[in-house]
Write a structure and sequence with these properties.
The chain is α/β, with parallel strands linked by helices and 487 residues long. 38% of the residues lie in helices and 21% in strands.
Length: 487
């Protein structure tokens, strides 16, 4: 099978969130079982500082609404998967990927329309006729319409005959790619597509069009696939998703255990451990505490958190309950960045509880590994969470998560078995889950150890998730042997 996987960010080349991790790990797992998968992303300015060995492959032009635009195609290997980079300085040679600060670039629609069209031209440039094109999030959501609108032309062109099947993945439906209606000419599509596929309360909605026009729509956990069909979590597209539920699939993201495993982690002070010998975890915790001048005592459970400081991540519950949790004789180390008001809160918390709180504002991959390995408890009380990865990392490290039952958190954490859960998004319920976790840690150490061992033994590897994606690919291609049932 030949698959073209298109994403606006792919680890390690560009990353703002989980989309990039999937863009690296899923193609790697698909290729490992023998399929020819290629990935495509923009060539951002940030790549220049990474000293990546790039091979120039081709140069071509892309027809846009305002004339021909040039593109240069580059290639690199990413864990054995060929990755192609589309260069256009006017669109991608910028300080950030999507915008500066809280403001999106005003020409984002034009930038990613160009990217979608260039990705299709890339196929011809590398002589790669895909069976399936896999698009991801709003930045690639216009591609199904482009391919459908050009169907007659492609049907006469043997290169795109048969026309590739289209799979579209929603990583977070709150980001939909909405633009003013007067931007419609940028898409260079017949007006009928706006009326039937893109129109959303007088705006262009790219994600809506992809849901309409893709052959299959996937999202990143089974529970999230159900949630986004409801008013609370659909962000206005719940009716559209309900209308296409026969082609909607929830597939839990996997994790790369080569990168996240306590037996081989290169970032945990040279100390490793396993479910058979947990002694290393205690030593890592001591060193982590020393980094933040926290007292080293087994009586004080160490609580970790690695997150974006935004409302979605449940930070409002943290701000409401953090003092009460610390007053239960606990310690807390927090890594993250986001809204300034949350930065201010955590700095205040550190000053108010000396010897109890460690804070790192920003991104630090090595520290993220040390927190996963050294903490006893991991907080993830998200308002909504399409999949979540940190709770799965925590399981492998024997760090028991406290999560709200939503999205992928509900699909991975079972109360009293491998972590602690609550459902109603209230401070009372979150605090109750934290109190129960601390009580088990202090009063029932044998049970705590058993929960750790259970968690560490669970397998959320990409191999299992890739098999389900291959089922979707085969199903849209008409191979019923590999049937994968919609949610």
């Amino acid at each position: 099978m030949r698959i073209l996987y298109i994403a606006s960010e792919i680890t390690p080349f560009a990353k703002t969130g989980g989309l990039a991790d999937v863009g690296q790990a899923l193609p790697k797992a698909v290729k490992a079982v023998g399929h020819d998968i290629r990935t495509v992303m923009p060539k951002y300015l940030s790549l220049a500082a990474q000293n990546i060995a790039l091979e120039r492959v081709a140069q071509f032009t892309v027809q846009m609404h305002n004339g021909l635009q040039g593109a240069v195609l580059w290639r690199a290997e990413n864990d054995s998967v060929p990755t192609y980079f589309i260069e256009n300085d006017a669109y991608f040679n910028r300080e950030e990927f999507y915008g500066l600060g809280d403001a999106d670039y005003p020409d984002n629609l034009e930038r990613f329309v160009f990217f979608c069209r260039a990705a299709l031209e890339c196929c011809r440039a590398i002589d790669f006729a895909p069976d399936v094109i896999h698009c991801n999030d709003w930045q690639t959501a216009a591609l199904p319409a482009m391919l459908k609108a050009s169907y007659a032309a492609y049907r006469k062109d043997p290169f795109f005959n048969p026309v590739p099947k289209l799979v579209y993945t929603i990583h977070n439906i709150s980001y939909q790619g909405r633009f003013p209606e007067d931007h419609w000419p940028i898409l260079s599509l017949p007006r009928s597509y706006y009326t039937y596929d893109f129109e959303f309360y007088g705006q262009i909605n790219l994600t809506k069009s992809a849901i309409h026009l893709a052959d299959a729509v996937t999202t990143v956990s089974e529970t999230y696939a159900r949630e986004i069909q409801t008013t609370d979590f659909g962000f206005g597209l719940q009716d559209t998703l309900q209308g296409h539920k026969e082609k909607l699939y929830g597939i839990l993201n996997g994790v790369d255990y080569q990168q996240w495993r306590p037996e081989t982690d290169p970032y945990t002070y040279g100390i490793v451990y396993s479910a058979n010998d947990l002694s290393g975890k205690r030593r890592i915790k001591s060193k982590l505490r020393a980094e933040y001048q926290l007292p080293d005592s087994d009586a004080l459970p160490l609580i970790g958190m690695t997150t974006r400081f935004v409302e979605q991540k449940g930070i409002d519950l943290i701000t409401e309950c953090a003092e009460k949790i610390l007053q239960l004789d606990t310690q807390m180390i927090v890594l993250g960045s986001g809204e300034p008001r949350y930065h201010d809160f955590f700095e205040w918390l550190r000053r108010s509880y000396p010897g109890r709180v460690g804070i790192y504002i920003g991104f630090n991959n090595e520290l993220a590994h040390r927190i996963e390995a050294g903490a006893d408890i991991f907080l993830m009380p998200s308002l909504f969470e399409p999949c979540g990865l940190n709770q799965i990392y925590s399981l492998k490290y024997g760090t028991l998560p406290i999560v709200r039952l939503t999205g992928g958190l509900a699909d991975t954490i079972e109360d009293g078995v491998n972590g602690f859960t609550f459902f109603d998004f209230t401070a009372h319920n979150f605090l109750d889950a934290a109190q129960r976790a601390i009580e088990v840690y202090r009063k029932h150490p044998d049970r705590w150890i058993q929960m750790m061992i259970t968690a560490m033994g669970q397998d959320f590897s990409w191999e299992k998730s890739a098999e389900k994606y291959l089922g979707v690919y085969n199903q849209v291609l008409g191979n019923k042997t590999y049937r994968s049932d919609p949610t």
